[in-house]
Design brief:
The complex is a heterodimer of chains A (150) and B (144).
Chain A: E1 18-19, H1 22-31, H2 42-47, H3 61-72, E2 84-93, E3 102-115, E4 118-128, E5 134-144
Antiparallel strand pairs in A: 1-3, 2-5, 3-4, 4-5
Chain B: E1 15-23, H1 25-35, H2 45-50, H3 60-75, E2 81-88, E3 101-114, E4 119-128, E5 131-132, E6 134-142
The chains are: A alpha+beta (150), B alpha+beta (144).
């Protein structure tokens, strides 16, 4: 089933704030095996000019994906979620995510199209802190694979 | 932001120190918990095979995180990364044994972008079991 093209360009209200904790950053850094001290030691982060520990570059995906998920699961869009794979991912940073941030995500469906029988949807997640400062934008391409002819 | 590599010291073609990252089933369970991505294709072999995969596969975002380490370890300050993007081309298949899989990452300065902003583009390659697992893997990095 073709997706509802009218969803392209649609924006959604900002998510409730996600509060970034030092220990969550530590857990994530350990999970990717990265011992960079700026992720776990506030003093090391300060020496690099950061007010508190910072998060690895891909940490924010957990937050933006949760927001994108709500958008692409809108039944009116018509996406078969069981066939969705992650196609591309990109981040554009104004600054690193850091402990103490209270982040909101505003999701926008940038495009909806069919390519070779697959449905391709591009979702942008603009992440701001509680002062309204832009932190990072996540660009997520999801591909719903066509069903094989049976 | 305090990158330890100076813009003046790099040229197009400068190679970053390469790295190899091991990934086992335990790694994936840990990453699932830390990231909140509990899709069973990353930990349940039966489920993975039922949806047509050869075995359990790593989270694409895990591979993306490992590839970034070649850039952040080189730059010194992870905040030096101003843009980072990848395409997920092939899955990293993770067998249920002690060794699991390896993700081999290399990076090269592909272009010096802006003399004033001191930004360079780093092109990354990531391979596992002889296959390219990321495409268009690029980072824009602000150097000292």
């Amino acid at each position: 089933m073709a997706l509802d093209q009218s969803f392209a360009g649609r924006s959604y209200p900002p998510t409730p704030p996600y509060e970034v904790g030092r220990e969550k950053i530590r857990e994530f850094a350990e999970a990717i095996g990265d011992s960079h001290p700026a992720y776990t030691d506030p003093e090391a982060a300060k020496q690099l000019g950061h007010p508190d520990v910072i998060a690895p570059p891909t940490f924010v995906f957990s937050i933006t994906y949760r927001a994108a998920h709500q958008v692409v699961r809108d039944p009116a869009l018509g996406l078969d979620y069981t066939r969705v794979v992650h196609g591309d991912q990109k981040f554009a940073y104004s600054r690193p995510v850091r402990a103490g941030d209270r982040l909101t995500v505003t999701s926008t469906i940038e495009s909806v199209r069919s390519m070779a029988g697959n449905e391709v949807i591009d979702v942008r997640g603009d992440v701001h802190d509680e002062t309204g400062e832009h932190v990072v934008t996540a660009f997520t391409k999801l591909v719903s694979r066509k069903k094989e002819a049976s | 932001m305090t990158a330890t590599v100076a813009y003046a010291d790099v040229e197009t073609g400068t190679e970053l120190p390469a790295a190899t990252f091991p990934v086992t089933r335990e790694t994936l369970v840990r990453y699932a918990g830390a990231s909140g991505d509990f899709n069973p294709i990353h930990w349940n072999e039966k489920f993975a095979r039922e949806v047509g995969l050869p075995d359990v596969i790593a989270h694409g975002m895990f591979t993306m995180a490992e590839a970034a380490r070649v850039v952040t370890d080189w730059a010194g300050d992870p905040a030096a990364v101003v843009e980072y993007g990848v395409r997920f081309t092939k899955p990293v298949v993770v067998p249920n044994d002690e060794t699991g899989a390896l993700i081999e990452v290399t990076g090269t300065v592909a272009a010096k972008l802006d003399d004033e902003a001191r930004t360079v583009r780093v092109d990354l390659t990531a391979r596992s079991a002889g296959q390219k697992v990321l495409g268009m893997a690029r980072a824009v990095v602000r150097l000292a």
